[in-house]
Each structure stands twice: as C-alpha cells, then as structure tokens.
C-alpha cells in the first residue's frame, strides 16, 4: 500500500495540512472539535458535517488507514502554530564567534585595546577567537605568537575558559575562548 504524504510548502519549509476539498481519500476517521471520536465517515459526509458546524476539516494523520481528520477552525489553528514557533524562536540564544586579530610585534597600548575587546565579547556571551597573524619572516618566530596568546589567556583566565587550544592554521595561530558563565549554563541544563 502506498503511503500518502501531507503537502510540503516551499515558501515556509514545513509540512502543510490538507483541508476541506484538498482531502481526496474516500473514507476518513473523524475527530470532533472537542476531541471526541465520530467514527469513519465518507469524505462528503465529513465535509457536510464540518460545514454545518462552521468548521474546517483538517487532515492530521495522512499516513493512517483511513486518514485521520479533525474538525477545527483552521485559521485559529495556523495562528496558534505560528505563535508557538515565534515563542520557540524568541527563547533561542545565538552565540557568535567574535574575532580579534593581532600581530606578534604588538605595542602595549594596542594589546590593552584588543584585550578590552575580548573581555567585552566574553561578557556579552559571545565566544572570542584570538588570531595572531604572521607575515613574511615572522612565521619563523612562532614562540612570540604563543607567548602573546598565553598573555591573553592569563589576562582573561578569571572570566574565560579555553574552548579550543592554540593551533596553527596556515599563517595564523588561533585560540577560542568561551565565558565561564556560558560554560556553567551548559553543564546545568542536562
């Protein structure tokens, strides 16, 4: 037996329920507006009964045999779905990775300026990626880059933990920091 699928909306990217005349199954299992089982009815009888009550017939389980349809106000149903999706989206937190690029021969004032940026990123709840960019012959002195990263780590050790340790990526040496408060939230959630 071939299973029927609900229609898929390209615009919204979610499965749309078939309603009223879009339902083509000859027999349907009908659920009333209050959730009571009305039994198996023909498509036409079910549509007439829904119209009498001033409601729509909505296919809720197209893969069942026979398909299950519920009598409801479809506009209200869609509104509630959108409201739930909006609430779920509102509760999501988006964490960004903010990057600070420095050179191995950085001046003290520039170092303090970049350090303040890193601290602000971590306090805002974002991850901070510190990249030491080597140009030309500077690549020979990787130890200077490592010392600079260690200096950043030491200055932020009270507010940040290391998510990924220092590593070379081409001509860049990078380290990713995450705030301690963010890390403790992850541990307490499970």
UniProtKB/TrEMBL annotation:
Signal peptide: none annotated. GO terms for biological process: ribosome disassembly. Its main location: cytoplasm. Residues 95-179 form the Translation initiation factor 3 C-terminal domain. It is found in: Cytoplasm. PROSITE patterns: IF3. SUPFAM superfamilies: Translation initiation factor IF3, C-terminal domain (SSF55200), Translation initiation factor IF3, N-terminal domain (SSF54364). Pfam families: IF3_C, IF3_N. Residues 19-88 form the Translation initiation factor 3 N-terminal domain. Keywords: Cytoplasm, Initiation factor, Protein biosynthesis. It comes from the Bacteria. Residues 1-20 are annotated as: Disordered. One of its GO terms (cellular component) is cytosol. Residues 7-20 have a biased composition (Polar residues). Belongs to the IF-3 family. IF-3 binds to the 30S ribosomal subunit and shifts the equilibrium between 70S ribosomes and their 50S and 30S subunits in favor of the free subunits, thus enhancing the availability of 30S subunits on which protein synthesis initiation begins. Monomer. This is Translation initiation factor IF-3. The lineage of its organism: Bacteria, Candidatus Moduliflexota, Candidatus Vecturitrichia, Candidatus Vecturitrichales, Candidatus Vecturitrichaceae.
